[in-house]
TrEMBL record:
Gene Ontology biological process terms, A to Z: thiamine biosynthetic process; thiamine diphosphate biosynthetic process
Protein's name according to its UniProt entry: Thiamine-phosphate synthase
Required co-factors: Mg(2+)
EC number: 2.5.1.3
Positions bound to 4-amino-2-methyl-5-(diphosphooxymethyl)pyrimidine: 41-45, 73, 115, 145
Lineage, top ranks: Bacteria, Pseudomonadati, Pseudomonadota, Betaproteobacteria, Burkholderiales
Annotated residues for binding of 2-[(2R,5Z)-2-carboxy-4-methylthiazol-5(2H)-ylidene]ethyl phosphate: 181, 201-202
NCBIfam families hit by this protein: thiE
Length: 221
């Protein structure tokens, strides 16, 4: 199995759709990996823990074949149990400090990404917590989360100004991820606004040509 990079991988960041056809899901993930996806987040809210763990392990194996990092959404325990590369947490998923303690207790280290929504204050706390990336969104209307708050593309410049004030260099600062309604039509504007990575669900996995779409989005970087 190929070793994944030791830093959070910038570029295309896929998030799994909640399809019931798991063979179709695994096939789609491999197609996205072939197209250059650098990170995949496992997000399955409807599966039992046991089923999610089994399928997550299969997915991680596919990702690592293509040097794609494997993250788990929300569940620190699932991330630890399947020895994921990282975990993504939101406002209600506990603190970064508690997460690191849980990792330490099991002798593991995870990349940590946090949702900052449209709040530069949350971003400032994430920077202080030395997370690996912070995410702003929804940048555009999202079919997955239609009720999500609207985030401005200006937040990327604002976050970079905060990091500059803290004198954080390129290898020290967290990556900036854009999320929410991103597709081939608007992704370039997110990259040009300063995002290091774009998180995509429907715009990638609902595409007729997943591998080609992944390649297009990856080439923006």
């Amino acid at each position: 199995m190929t070793q994944v990079t030791k830093r959070f991988a910038n570029g295309l960041y896929g998030i799994t759709p909640e399809w019931q056809d798991h063979a179709k899901l695994l096939h789609a993930i491999e197609a996205a990996c072939r197209g250059g996806m650098r990170v995949l987040q496992w997000r399955q809210k409807k599966l039992s823990y046991a089923d999610s763990l089994t399928l997550a392990l299969e997915t991680k194996a596919i990702c690592h074949q293509y040097q794609c990092q494997f993250f788990v959404n929300d569940s620190v325990q699932l991330a630890l149990d399947c020895r994921a590369d990282g975990v993504h947490i939101g406002r209600d998923d506990g603190s970064v400090t508690a997460l690191r303690k849980a990792c330490q207790a099991q002798g593991q280290s995870l990349f940590i990404g946090v949702s900052c929504y449209n709040d530069i204050n949350l971003a400032q706390q994430a920077i202080k917590d030395q997370v690996d990336y912070l995410a702003f969104g929804a940048l555009f209307p999202s079919s997955v989360k239609p009720e999500a708050v609207v985030a401005s593309l200006d937040l990327f410049a604002a976050a970079k100004a905060v990091m500059q004030a803290h004198q954080l260099g390129p290898t020290e600062r967290p990556a900036l991820v854009g999320i929410g309604g991103i597709d081939c039509h608007n992704a370039r504007s997110v990259v040009e606004a300063g995002a290091d990575s774009i998180a995509v669900i429907s715009g990638l996995f609902e595409s007729d040509e997943i591998e080609a779409t992944a390649r297009y989005l990856s080439n923006l970087f």
